[in-house]
Amino acid sequence: QVHMQGQRWRCSLLGLLMLTSECLSWSNMLVAKRLLSRTGPLHTAGSFVSLFVRPSIAAPSPQLVARSAACDARMSVQDFKTAQDFIDYVNMEYEKVHRTFEEQFWGTKMGLPNGTPLADGRKPEEYSVEELTRTKQEMENFLADEKKLEQSRKWLKHGSLSSEQAKVLKVFERTFGCYIMESEEARKFREEATKLEGTLNDMRNKMTLGANMPGKGFVEMSSVGLREKLRTAESEEERQACYEGLKSIGTFVLSNGFIEIVKLRNRMAKELGYVDFYDYKVRQAEGFSKDELFKILDTLEKGTRDLMLKARAKLASDKGEMALEPWNMVYCMSGDVVKKLDPYFPFEKSVERWGRSFSRMGIQYRGAIMDLDLLNRKGKYSNGFCHWPQPAWRKPDGSWQPALTHFTSLANPRNVGSGQTALTTLMHEAGHAAHFANIQQASPLISQERAPTSVAYAETQSMFLDSLVGDASWRGRYARNRAGEPIPWELIEADIRATHPYKVFTLRTMLAVPYFEKALYELADDEITPERVAALEKQIELEIQGGPSPRPLLSVPHLLSDESACYYHGYVLAEMAVHQTRNFFLKNFGQIVDNNKIGPMLEEAYWRPGNLEMFLDLVKKLTEEPLTGEAWVNAIKIPVDEKLEKERKEYDKAVARPAPGADAGEEEVDLKMRVRFVDGPTVIADTEESKGDFLAACRQFERFLEEKYPLAAGEGEGSSARTFG
Fold it and tell me: Are strands 682-686 and 385-390 parallel, antiparallel or unpaired?
């Protein structure tokens, strides 16, 4: 140990030698002190020792050293000489705590072995629930520091601020205001809930999930695999078994801590003066109250209730009353069509088709690095997501910090329908990635995905892009079998006839989640029991969906984690914005698919601002109208024949063009990023190793799949499904 300026510091003998030789002034001593506080014992690759031994690799720039001296982490609020010193301190320290938490989030959710390196070379020694909990608390403590809020407000009153400094400080004020808990009791509730969440999520990841299949016994499947079986399994007994498998998730979480988590979340929110936890989350993320939110959702609910009842009656009339059973609904609406569509969505081609489609729309990632972990495996988190260990932002010297993106899904290439599901997920999560890679502002706090970033704002970007997979114009262009033949119109027509009359079910399924969570957090503390919550699930499914849901509400993974609890309303608001945005582009350009004006316009209007602007304002600015559900409801109401006529025209134009890759200038796909395809700790392909060639990395990914999931005899061009070798 060594005493410096009245404080005790821990370092090795080598560290003392470095301090003696390198830290000749108090300014540099502050940098040393800050680095020691960051790295602890001097033994890691990113430690204080390595910074001085290998300055060409890791040493901070002179400007950064100067600002670090001015912005030491242990300075009081009075010690910052300028607003920029304070801004630089917050930016640098937030990057650190954000990064360490996100590393643990990825490692634990993906079930990575300790020491698995990340795409940018960082190599956390340990991935564990304990470290996840610790780093999350560290990040939240940083954001909940009242002194930072005081300092933000102090500098906002300063007359010498530049316009950019003022914008950044206003975001600081909003962000710190979201996390500060004036009540010590509330902080205790939050910390306790965080620990329980980590434990429950870890148990849920390791849960033996599957179905007791007739004649086969228990078959392990992920929640995604179970839902795919509901769409495609010909045997009603198998479908019912898979539905019961999904229902078992609710029983599991209710018995393993979820009840206590709900109580703790509510206690925390009420201690802070909110109505309940849902009100707390909505006000943080969207900037308005729970009551205001549900005024919007009530309009959709009431406006589509009759449509839902009529659709259920039609399904029962066309397919029989058995079609309304939760394990039969999805299959009766699309089961046969899904199988026929399957050959035109080969799983191994999904990454190439995503890349080509985004590239043709002018979407780029501004130098980002992306890890894609697409394949299902045991112990992996049961929902796709996209997170950013490194937020994108513009530094004070004008240099650009690209994003590092972690992106996952749960594809099983052997399943019928896996190719279409994988492609839709790719378009969705890659839409998130494009959005956050293109936020061009002067702080990582403007480009991070938590409050005060609007849930609806974030989901609009991803859902707009995944909506294209259902368009006849996109399918005519990109949905092709292994022989390169485009999907025939007859299949698209059959799909529209099978699914369009029931599109209202999608809307109602989305609405059910926020209505369930609203009712859940409005329960009195003594009412929150496993039996009451299970009954509430049944009640909301009946009220909103007309009967038991094919996706039981308690199987929705968003409910479990603090980050995504009371979040699902964002998908509903986003879907409203998606239809309104689509209408705007179609009205102005006539087409969206392969229109190279779309990406730049999305970047300019939606992506670049980050959380500087409010969601409703951004939608109105681009579409020139306030957000309503009118475009969505009108899309549901359009008669089938009218939709078919419109879609046929778009399909004919699409198939008349050369196949993707055959057009001049399409030999390369440059998304302006490095991509790694990974399977847990295994790196399958890396565009850095293929000299930036995205398509070469796609070929390598295809070869990996061919070896791991070889085609069964007779599949060839007629199926996207693969079997285990």
Answer: unpaired
CA dist., res. 267 & res. 616, Å (int):
30
Which run of H or E residues covers position 401?
strand 400-401
Cβ-based neighbour number of residue 424 at 10 Å: 21
* Residue among 451, 513, 453, 518 nearest 276 (CA): 518
Q: Which amino acid is at 147?
A: K
- Residue 372, beta-bridge partner list: 407, 677
- CA-CA distance, 488 to 491, in Å (whole number)? 6
Tokens representing 690 are: 């293929």
Is 187 in contact with 143 (CB distance < 8 Å)?
no
Lowest mean pLDDT among 25-39, 159-173, 444-458, 709-723: 25-39
Token duo for residue 12 = 């090795």
- Distance of alpha carbon 274 from the chain centroid: 27
Average pLDDT over residues 31-53: 32
Over residues 357-399, the pLDDT tens digits come to 999 999 999 999 999 999 989 888 878 889 999 999 999 999 9
DSSP 436-460: HHT---S-GGGS-SSTTS-HHHHHH
CA gap 69, 72 in Å, rounded? 6
Q: Which two tokens stand for residue 687?
A: 């565009």
**Is-contact 449 458, C-beta < 8 A?**
yes
**Structure token digits, residue 37:** 């506080």
Which residue carries 């035109």 as its tokens?
344
DSSP one-letter string for 696-711: HHHHHHHHHHHHHSPP
Strand order in the sheet with 368-375: 385-390, 404-411, 368-375, 673-679, 682-686
| Cβ atoms 261, 521 nearer than 8 A | no
pLDDT of residue 666: 66
Residues contacting residue 255 through CB under 8 Å, at least 6 positions apart: 530
Residues 6+ apart with CB under 8 A from 563: 450
